[in-house]
Amino acid sequence: MTDSVVSNRHKDCMPCRLVSGFGVIGMGVYIALHAQKRPNKFGRYSMFSIAAVAGGIGVARLLDVYPFGEKSQK
After folding, report:
1. 35, 28, 25: which is closest to 58 by C-alpha?
2. What is the DSSP letter of 37?
3. What pLDDT, in 10s, does the model give residues 16-70?
4. Does the keyword Transmembrane apply (predicted)?
5. CA 24 → CA 6, 51, 60, distances in Å?
6. Hey, how many other C-beta atoms are within 10 angstroms of the C-beta on 24?
């Protein structure tokens, strides 16, 4: 019972990381563009923060940092 589905999964390939990373970055850009059209400041800033988080997740996915990549061993 030591082998699980998660531990036996394949390592992500470069094309998979590129598609998903740029997809999430694109989602962040889309949200940021629509945030500029909001008349309410609270709604605008909330959408900008969601767009920033999506962009950060996309960059982390492209760079293969933890939690997407492996934890660094010290």
Report:
1. 25
2. T
3. 889 999 999 999 999 999 999 999 999 999 999 999 999 999 999 998 887 777 7
4. yes
5. 23, 9, 10
6. 20
Q: Report pTM.
A: 0.75
User: Smallest Cα–Cα separation from 60: which of 11, 7, 33, 24?
Assistant: 24
Q: How many helices (H) and strands (E) does the chain have?
A: 2, 0
Which pLDDT score is estimated for 64? 84
Q: Extract the tokens encoding 63.
A: 């760079």
* Residue at token pair 């923060």: 49
Contact status, residue 31 vs residue 51, Cβ threshold 8 Å: yes
Tokens 């959408």 appear where?
Answer: 47
